[in-house]
Amino acid sequence: SNPLHRQVHQDMEQPLCHYYIASSHNTYLSGDQLLSQSRADMYARVLQAGCRCVEVDCWDGPDGEPVVHHGYTLTSKILFRDVAETINKYAFVKNEFPVILSIENHCSIQQQKKIAQYLKEIFGDKLDLSSVSTGDPRQLPSPQDLKGKILVKV
């Protein structure tokens, strides 16, 4: 094989909206979307496979602990905290480009506050808390600017 093919360079300095982003839908499911198991390790699997946007469906859980599952189905429930810890552990194992958490929020204000607390505690400095004006997408930061960062999309 041609050694030059191993030196592919992509310009990662353009605004984020200029890129196709490898995304996962119902990331937590190990099988079908009606009956299967929800598993935190599915996040480890897709992140290591190069996925940069993962879906987290959040619902009110028992004892004030938000859970992740596919609503109105028989899929099992996992703790949001476990999902966040798994994402934190595996987000940047294969590459440093940003990871987007696509959060589908079905939680009460009380459990939303708990989610915010876990995001800050678990991700720490990796959590990108800068606000972005949605007016002009050309003003979005680049993947290069966001290396090592976790972005939250709700």
Automatic annotation (TrEMBL):
GO terms for molecular function: phosphatidylinositol-4,5-bisphosphate phospholipase C activity. One of its GO terms (biological process) is lipid catabolic process. Gene3D superfamilies: Phosphatidylinositol (PI) phosphodiesterase. PROSITE patterns: PIPLC_X_DOMAIN. InterPro entries: PI-PLC_fam (IPR001192), PLC-like_Pdiesterase_TIM-brl (IPR017946), PLipase_C_PInositol-sp_X_dom (IPR000909). GO terms for cellular component: cytoplasm. It is an enzyme of class 3 (hydrolase). It comes from the Eukaryota. It catalyses: a 1,2-diacyl-sn-glycero-3-phospho-(1D-myo-inositol-4,5-bisphosphate) + H2O = 1D-myo-inositol 1,4,5-trisphosphate + a 1,2-diacyl-sn-glycerol + H(+). Its EC number is 3.1.4.11. Keywords: Hydrolase, Lipid degradation, Lipid metabolism. Residues 10-154 form the Phosphatidylinositol-specific phospholipase C X domain. Pfam families: PI-PLC-X. Coiled coil: none annotated. The keyword Hydrolase applies. This is Phosphoinositide phospholipase C.
